[in-house]
Write a structure and sequence with these properties.
The protein is mainly β. The protein contains one helix and eight strands. The longest helix is centred in the N-terminal third of the chain and has 17 residues.
Length: 187
């Protein structure tokens, strides 16, 4: 454990020294996009929507830390047991991004998020409309969210993420989003 802390400290100190471009410390992003559930064998999946807000603190021009809160809805269709699962998930996770500042026009980033997903799965059975054929499951699980994207002109952010709740395969989905960034401009 000591070695990991020492290595991370050295990398972090070099990154601080290497970042010559100065950026605003805080930024906020609001965005919207599509949610694309992972299709499992013999179970069609239907795309949904994904809203999010994220607050970021720019450590320097290369690294930032943030808090992402998002709301996702999509549908999984389990043909084998004749059920449709309407999935609603709320995610909150801390994220860490590495930024390549290649020009004033664009910035490519990669990152990783880790946090928590609170979900509700409403199950409806085919052919039953009186409510007797439905049930609801709620829960919460840890989640991980690797991502990659590009920020254009310090204002528009296009991202691809994979949101992977731990040990809950029907909740795994990817997102493609567009976000509007406030603050964080280069000085």
């Amino acid at each position: 454990m000591k070695r990991i802390i020492i290595v991370l400290s050295v990398i972090f100190s070099f990154s601080l020294a290497a970042s010559a471009q100065e950026v605003g410390r805080f930024e906020f992003e609001l965005g919207y996009g599509g949610a694309f559930p992972i299709q499992m064998e013999n179970h069609p999946a239907y795309n949904g929507r994904h809203y999010f807000g994220e607050v970021r603190y720019n450590l320097n021009s290369k690294f930032d830390l943030g808090l992402n809160i998002s709301d996702t809805r999509f549908i999984q269709d389990y043909v084998s047991d004749k059920t449709i699962h309407q999935i609603h998930g709320l995610q909150a996770y801390l994220c860490f991004d590495y930024n390549w500042r290649r020009s004033k026009e664009y910035n490519i980033f990669v990152g990783l998020g880790a946090g928590w997903t609170v979900f509700q799965s409403n199950t409806n059975y085919y052919g039953l409309t009186d409510g007797a054929g439905s049930k609801s499951i709620e829960g919460s699980v840890p989640c991980f969210a690797p991502r990659v994207g590009i920020e254009l002109f310090d204002r528009l952010r296009l991202s691809y993420s994979l949101i992977a709740p731990y040990d809950c395969y029907e909740l795994i989905h990817s997102t493609i989003t567009i976000g509007l960034v406030f603050g964080g401009k280069r000085k």
